[in-house]
Amino acid sequence: MQIDSDQEFDPSSNRHHDRGLQRVLDRLCQTIERDALVRQTTNQLRELLQVDRVVLYYFYSQWSGQVTFESLSNQELSILGSTGPDDCFNNDYADMYKDGRVRAIADIELEPIQPCHRDFLRNLQVRANLVVPVLIPRGLWGLLIAHHCQAPRSWLASDIEVMQQKAQILATASCILSNPC
Fold first, then answer.
1. In this structure, how many other beta carbons lie within 10 angstroms of the beta carbon of residue 68?
2. How far is residue 67's CA from residue 59's CA, in Å, rounded to a whole number?
3. Contact residues for 125 (Cβ-Cβ < 8 A; gap 6+)
4. Which SMART domains match (predicted)?
5. CA distance 26 to 94
6. Where are the domains of the chain?
7. At CB < 8 A and 24+ separation, what contacts does 93-101 make?
8. What are the tens digits of pLDDT across the range 119-143?
């Protein structure tokens, strides 16, 4: 057996490898912490608001995203992985949410919304919904969305306030700010 270099046996040569491994472990820890925070937030909101479903719609690229977390009153209501109506969410809506727009719809059947939006919400079995943006310094990170599926619902100012508070907690969490995905 021929040895070309003494470097193979030099423990200091593994420092670069160790730093890379440490970065991977740090990122994994941040991801686990972020996931736990989002899961806790969606569960708390569903219980506080007494709704059928609370989801986090995460934007993985400009105005493309999907439901990455959900808390459900019934497993049959799952929409995990749903990407939303491509033709309905455009730059105009994105700009409104980037500016802090909160959207509360008491009854999708009576609200003056785009037909594609109404059809999309019907397909998700939504009757009333409340949408609050999660805004981080880089922009619109995601949307916290509460769905009431069984009947219309008049959203209270306190419902909106608690959603905004939880969105702010997410938006300022170090595990979200330091971990882009």
1. 18
2. 9
3. 77, 147, 149
4. GAF
5. 31
6. 16-177
7. 94/62, 94/63, 94/140, 97/131, 97/133, 97/140, 97/143, 98/133, 98/135, 98/139, 98/140, 100/133, 100/135, 101/133
8. 989 999 999 999 999 999 988 999 9
Containing 37, the helix (H) or strand (E) segment is helix 15-49
With 60 as the cut, is the pLDDT of residue 109 above it?
A: yes
State how far the Cα of 63 lies from the Cα of 142, in Å rounded to an integer.
10
Q: Are 167 and 134 in contact (CB under 8 A)?
A: yes
* Residues whose CB falls within 8 Å of the CB of residue 89, separated by 6 or more in sequence, listed in order: 63
SS3 148: strand
CATH code given to domain 16-177: 3.30.450.40
